[in-house]
Write a structure and sequence with these properties.
Layout lengths: L4 E8 L6 H14 L4 E8 L6 H11 L3 E6 L5 H11 L4 E4 L10 H10 L4 E8 L5 H17 L8 E8 H8 L8 H8 L3 E7 L12 H15 L2 H30 L7 H33 L7 E5 L11
Helix pairs in contact: 5-8, 9-10
The chain binds uridine-5'-diphosphate and magnesium ion.
Uridine-5'-diphosphate binds next to β1 and α3.
Main location: membrane
Organism: Andreprevotia lacus DSM 23236
Family: Belongs to the glycosyltransferase 2 family. GtrB subfamily.
Length: 320
Amino acid sequence: MKHPLLSIVVPCYNEEEVIQETIKRLNAFSATLTDLDVELIFVDDGSRDGTRALLKAEAASNANVRIVGFARNFGHQIAVSAGIDAARGDAVVLIDADLQDPPEVVSEMIAKWREGYDVVYGVRTERPGETAFKRATARSFYRLLNKLSDVPIPLDTGDFRLMSRNVVDVIRAMPERDRFVRGMVSWAGFKQTALPYRRAERFAGETKYPLRKMLKFATDGIMSFSSKPLQMSIGLGMAAASLSLFGILYALFLRVFTNVWVEGWTALMIAVLFIGGVQLVCVGILGEYIGRIYSEVKRRPLYVVQEYIGYPGDHAPQFS
Ligand code: UDP
Ligand code: MG
């Protein structure tokens, strides 16, 4: 009898220190799933270390392993998207390569899926081993995002989740370039539920999310799911304009009714600098959105795959 297929998608970027342990844990976990077939899809996001070679060595002897090898580093969210594209399973699990998301929690996700849920997302109750800065910025980011976003996006939720084929097909049909996968899944709807879990420490190596990538990730999240910054910039502009009205009246008053009008240089500077600043901020916000429109209209592929391994003939996966 044919079992349902579970695809486990693992984005990897320079993870040579952990990848063997991750493979071991995922293999051991797969072996416990007696009534499911499992495929492990490792998306190598252009690693510059030995990650790809280690994955290939495993694929050579393990028929469950597939590799999607990117031609360069495209970023975590794109790697996750490629894994979703390449997954053929009836359910797809997204999990980090660093063992911060324990594979064992996936069995609870599977149980919920069998109860009829289409999305089971992990909610981090604790995040040991992460810097206070990371925890604080993550905490405020998820709260800000939730305030701004047009669809409710659950708090403190990463990409660690299980999705049914229904949801996977919706995500695959979403053509946007700026991927914010957890938001896209929320947007898709269906029956979703939370699963609290304790986020472990990174098994080895260090975070592949420097501040620069975190900022890009955060702006993608906010800008793909909200146009409120645009509306707020109108509000900011109007507030500044009304403030400057007082300044204008004051300046006119001095000019017409007094002879001290050479003074007021301070007020002038403040007004010029303030309005200049507000304008720059608003133009910047506009620019961010326009940049995104530009990258959408270029219609470039989302990622470039150098090699598929573990699929028949090592070609891109075929869907029947
Ligand atoms: N990752 C990736 N491409 C990148 C950065 C990260 O595929 O450009 C992967 C990384 O290998 C890991 C996951 O994304 O499996 C999460 O990254 P990391 O653990 O460094 O982030 P953190 O847990 O510190 O937020
Ligand atoms: Mg991590």
